[in-house]
Amino acid sequence: MQKKLTWALLTLLCVSMLAVAASAAPTTGLHVAKIAADGQTVLNETTVDYRWMEENLPVLGDGVTHYYHQGPVFEGDKWDPEETTNFKDRGAVKGTDIRDLAELVGGAEPGDEIMVRAADGYHVEFTYQNVYEPDPRQGPMGVCWYNGAETGAGERQGCGYVPDYYTGMRLVFFADNSTNAEGLHVYGNQDMYETLPESAQHFYDLYPSTGGLTVKWVDEVRVYAGGFQGERGALAGSLNAPETKATEPVESPLPLVVTLAAALGAVALHARRGA
């Protein structure tokens, strides 16, 4: 009986781990939706893949120029206005402007917010101005589906189109090089301070970090009329059907994995004690 129970728990644990792994995988398509001011009603929606985006919408990036974000700066000025350290190379990416994606479902207006959501449920929101009228030091925001060259250091991303570009599709800011002494295209922490409202800025503990804005495995872009009213930085439900609530959280499989692992450990301990 104990062996059967152990094997059953092992099977459930493996299935749960596969579910977690499936959510952390390259994406090749996007669901784009416009949500009414009630936060629930889907006004318009469409689904596109990276091939369609490349062939039918303007392309950001050239597959040669590298774009960088900045991680937390722990010594000196945490905003590092001179952009001197901890650059996060996001590769020689190409992608599609979020603005062009929003236009597929009717576009946005001042006062609206645009959500970029990852396959694991994590999401970030940006104002109309940051998406439609970006400061050059921020640059347009792109959902990237191609990487022409591996990063010089740090996180490996894979090269080519998704899924070979295995951190894609990924949100990257196509910043200019006006604030970097080396002429690099860096969206630095001071740039974030100057261009994003506080509600959209990202912090690692108390330290600003634009690297935290580069969401991996993007699978949805949503336009919220009147702004997003849900919890920011939390899980967001998929809008596979018009009646689905846009702010309904997705249940994460991680608690189940932890629970099953604990149960399996208890069974093993029970068996060792000969009870």
Keywords:
Sulfite Oxidase, Chain A, domain 2, disordered C terminus, 275 residues, disordered N terminus, 15 strands, alpha+beta, five-stranded antiparallel sheet
Structure description:
This protein has 6 helices and 15 strands. Helix 1 (2-23) packs antiparallel against helix 6. 37% of the residues are buried. Strand 7 and strand 8 (123-127) form a beta hairpin. Helices cover 24% and strands 24% of the residues. The protein has one domain (29-250): Sulfite Oxidase, Chain A, domain 2 (Alpha-Beta Complex), CATH 3.90.420. The chain has helices spanning 2-23, 50-56, 98-103, 128-132, 189-195, 254-273, and strands at residues 29-35, 42-49, 59-60, 67-70, 87-89, 93-97, 113-118, 123-127, 141-147, 160-161, 170-173, 185-187, 203-204, 207-208, 218-224. The two termini are 13 Å apart. With 275 residues, it is α+β, with helices and mostly antiparallel strands. The strands form 4 sheets. Strands 2-1-15-7-8 form a 5-stranded mixed beta sheet.
Give the structure's gist in a few sentences.
This protein is of the alpha+beta class and 275 residues long.
- Provide the succession of SSEs: HEEHEEEEHEEHEEEEHEEEH
Number of structurally distinct domains: 1
Strand content: 15-25%
Strand order of the largest sheet: 2-1-15-7-8
Helix proportion:
10-25%
Instruction: Based on Cα principal axes, name the global outline.
Output: globular
> What would you say the CATH architecture is?
Alpha-Beta Complex
Q: Extract low-pLDDT stretches.
A: 3-22, 235-275
Class by helix and strand content? Answer: alpha+beta
Question: How many strands?
Answer: 15
Our Rg estimate from Cα atoms comes to 21 Å
Assigned CATH class: Alpha Beta
Biggest sheet, open or closed, and with what strands and sense? Answer: 5 strands, mixed
